[in-house]
Amino acid sequence: MSTELWTYLLVGLSFALYLYIGYASRVRDTKGFYVAGRGVPPVANGAATAADWMSAASFISMAGLISAMGYDGAIYLMGWTGGYVLLALLLAPYLRKYRRFTVPDFIGDRYASNTARALAALATLFISLVYVAGQMRGVGIVFSRFLQVDIALGVLVGVLVVAFFAVLGGMKGVTWTQAVQYALLIIAYLIPAFAIAFMLTGVPIPQLALVASDLPERLNQIQTQLGFAEYTQPFQNKPMLDVLAITAALMVGTAGLPHVIIRFYTTPDVRSARYSAFWALLFIALLYTTAPAVAMFARYNLINTLHGKPLDEVRQIEWVAKWEKTRLLAFVDKNGDGRLTVAKGNAFTMEGGKPNFDKPDMSNPNEVFVDNDIIVLSTPEVARLAGFVIALVAVGGLAAALSTASGLLIAMASAVAHDLYYRIWNPRAPERLRLLVGRLAMLPALGVAAYLGINPPGFVAQVVAFAFGLAAAGLFPSILLGIFDRRMNQQGAVAGMVVGLTFTACMIALMRSPQLFGTPQPLLKDFFGISAEGIGVVGMVLNMATALIVSRLTPPPPENIQQLVDEIRIPRGAGEALDE
Fold this sequence. Notes:
The protein is mainly α. The protein contains 25 helices and four strands. It has a domain at 3-299 and 381-455: Up-down Bundle (Sodium/glucose cotransporter), CATH 1.20.1730. A hairpin with a 2-residue loop joins strand 2 and strand 3. The chain is globular, with a radius of gyration of 24 Å. Residues 573-580 have low confidence and may be disordered.
């Protein structure tokens, strides 16, 4: 059976399973729609959390960036992993103890302010829309290559599938679908990793292959021969300050992501939330400890497959021909010798943040353009694995993208229907109307997600990094100070969120202006050496500083709010701070 037939079969079966779960899990009340009835077992919730958190950026793009950047690419690995630990240990148990539906719910009640609630809800919408763009790009890439359809059509199919199980089942449908999607994505990631590890090193365990073989030394030697820095040499692609800033922004951004935090509201109690966090960390570790090995395998195989080979012969390779059609892989014979040269630099002139395939960049000898987002997806093909395995990777990539997209849709729907409509505009709305508004709120979000997936502002991991930066600058300080600072009041929280979000959004827009506005060059190269991916940590510092200063210059919060903070942090009774 051909790879395409395997892909159609496995993708079709997985989509049918998602649709069935969505239909079987359909809900008729807001508790089921927003927090899955708070009845999800810890292991299942841990798997769903892992799938929700490990997006297309983790599955498709992270190893691709590590492969392209070497040591410096580990910023994504360190930032996202450290961020989840920070969330699980520092924030999640306290937020679960509060027993509300959403992050804006917590912020609005903690600061006794509908203004703070509305700002948090708008921040949730903004962050989620940026984040979902990366997921839809991942869906489009998989469809365009493995199913040979246009990226736009692939994005639309993915949007329709997510819409079905998210709109019908709400958080309940999303949770059980995500648990299945985690199983699919981790199997799809590990099988080719184990196979390629054995092929290249004789060691079948990818993690051990990095330390028990000479592959790193071989790759370092190849890199230096081609004019690159050694693969394992740090701070070659990014300065140390930017590496630290991006890592920190990803860490605190993870801890402020509303669609991840809301997962801890779906367990029966605080104890279950803690166990859920443990299981999620274990499930996440399976992929994250494998990613560096996959990145190195991909880099080694790709260079050996392309460098020095006749261009005509390379283009006759099946996987090369099919990836070329997507415009995510391209070649140019700059010196006319008929052979490919892999070297440092751009193969084509970059315009508006994208390569212009009609204008080779003659300032360097590199003749190969590889989009970072195809490296993981193409690795099984480059290694000549069976068609079944290649198709399985496509299923895993779609599972990673769709699982996170569905979680983001729930976060956006709850921000509109619960936090803005019910808690601010219409507090007397009956439950049926609130549920209807929640489902209707998903429709414009799906439309925006589809548009951004077809016209993305960067690589998957880069787009996701922007969302993490916005979460770090907008929500994390308000949550952290809301739990641990009794003196923090609504004036401080509102001022901090406004300053942090405005600064970060403006800096990202200026530094990514070619992708966002089509300018020839970025309007701002960096902020004292910190790039757009790391600027969120500066926004976080400004948010916290503003919030602390303003709160000390204004009256303290009411005594009942200060007592609420104590009840959240100090164990009492059965461990629940508030009733439903």
